[in-house]
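Subject: Protein record for review, amino acid sequence with backbone structure tokens
Concerning: The relation between a protein's sequence and the shape of its backbone.
How to read it: Take the token row as a discrete description of the fold.
Enclosed: The protein record, placed directly beneath this head.
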Amino acid sequence: MTVIRFELADTERFGAGQGRWPQWFPASALAYLAHTELGVSIRALSRLSQCHPSTISRQISRWERLRDESLIDEAFSRLTVKPCPNAPGTTKKEPALIHVMPPESPCLPDDETFAAEARRILRRLSEPGAVLALASDMEKGVVVRETEAGTTTRTAVVERAVAQALAVKDWIACATEGRISRYRITSAGRAALGGLLAQSENRARGMAEGQMHVDASGAKSLRRRSTLGETPLMILSRRREKDGRLFLKAAQVSAGERLREDYELAQMASGASYDWAAVLAHETQPARRKTQPLSAEAAADRVAAALLLLGPGLGDVALRCCCQLEGVESAEQALGWSARSGKIVLRIALERLARYYEGLGEGTKMIG
């Protein structure tokens, strides 16, 4: 990968106040902006990157073509680049330093936010039949997936700036363009998700620490979790009763997805470290903070309130299967339950969750 050797501006020194270029932003895109917005020559970019001018020329041509995609064009249009003054080696045509100057508010997510959001959204888009629906006049989009009952269920809410960043990284691509465009995960996005999940597991658990649990006999075993593809809830939603009816109603599936969405949003809170077992044991109470419905803090409060409502047993299986993506059979063994009882208990939990979320009304929905 070509690395453009631009130095990044010191915001205090130059008074820009909008921060630095995030590390996730492609170096070739930065070169494109330097060439088109600042007039930096291809030969100058070649010297900075220590690669052949033809390589830089191809990269610039590629980004020019990619701007035909609306999300990428939006992302680039919201950026303003300019040379930093008084920098060593700066000339009118070949500035040594460049600095991002968003027009009103930061329009590029920082590295930590981007990694967390990419992990959350790509994980949802990796599920069969999932698409990101984004209306041209909305600042937020939704990841939706068709259920076995023929309905669609919302599985995640996405900030437009995050969607733009995912498109710039080529981790999502437009499948259907229109007033409501639909995006799917790319092969590059699936590969990136694997790396993001591995980083997250290593950071959170440290060499798989925390994935061990104690079963009914007191022995430790590795908890197997599904991280990509079909989730335990998706698998269960396809099962049918003897009379042909689906084992789970659409509202029950939707409730389980809402709990998982809240759970994943909660993990994005700064310094988040929640003891959900303590909530289930009634050792802690939901905070019920007055925050925006889709903030990480509000999502954590909803998860805590839902688990408190469900209590031990129902809450345990909902947390394991819906949020932590542990298989139903694995959850049965961990909880010391008899075989095939987990799906029945989970269905009862989902029915109560459906009533819980129904009672919250539309306040927690960003897009209907």
